[in-house]
Amino acid sequence: MNTLTAIAPVITADHDALRRDFPLKPFAIRHKLAGHPLLALPRIAQLASELPRDLIEYNSGKVAISQDPDAIPTVDLDPVEIVKSIETAGAWMVLKRVENSPEYRRLLEDTLLSVARARGFNSLADAGFEQVEGFLFVSSPNSTTPFHLDSEDNFFVHIHGEKFFTIFDNTDRSIVSDDEIERSMTKHRNIKYDESIATRGTEFHLFAGDGCYVPYQWPHWVRTAGSYSISMAITWKTREVRRMNDLHFFNSMLRGIGLPQQPPGKQPALDVLKLAFYRTVTTAIKPLRASMAMRRVLRRIALGRRANYYLKGA
């Protein structure tokens, strides 16, 4: 694990937001990653050729904010071709878990270490930055990422182009219900969007060097402007986030066999028992996940027949 040596500030925020608002509220950030060679199209194309296929997802960028997951238009190109032709491909792509590459892992950890230092901590662990992961987004001009929420905290850094990132309060259940949160986290991330809530969102207008902090489970949607876009989500999971995620997944599995469940936190004593059982089982099957074929099988068993939607045709 990195420690405080000569790590310069990579992410900064105005008005001491890193201390005042983190981790409860979104806020704008600035960063020094624009122009980094690991985040340029040639290196991203190389990464797309190296990652396991189930860590790459892409489709047409011409989708609705409230996109039906069963009707997402596809793009008939392979991942490397998508990156190389992103200016004209009409596509949206995410390369997942880029920390599997040692170079990208160092970039992610050094960036988060600069945040830990700004907040007065000596290491990533001290700051609560556990299970650090990275997600690289490459989008064609005028593309949309539909309304969804994520299962981790996230510093979203914008590298190239112009992007609009609109985020909504996750405590408002009139925007996203408990059932929709569970479904989004365990089935397909897209959630229903009603134009009547538009004025309740906070929009971040991003150019290279801009970004925003996205708290756990805060729903959002994103669109690019007239140029291709490169962005990266630098994510981590705290112990509490991992606990919540495990409960959501186990609740979904129980619901799938006809056993209705209360959201996490409604029955604390039962949550403890669920968590112990779920983690015992998932620890036992963890070695199986080294195989991409077995990952596909396990996802289908746990999450249903649509769990591997992003591998269609692959």
TrEMBL record:
Top-level taxon of the source organism: Bacteria
Domain JmjC: 102-253
Matches recorded under InterPro entries: Cupin_8 (IPR041667), JmjC_dom (IPR003347)
Gene3D superfamilies in the record: Cupin
Protein name: Transcriptional regulator
Organism: Bradyrhizobium archetypum
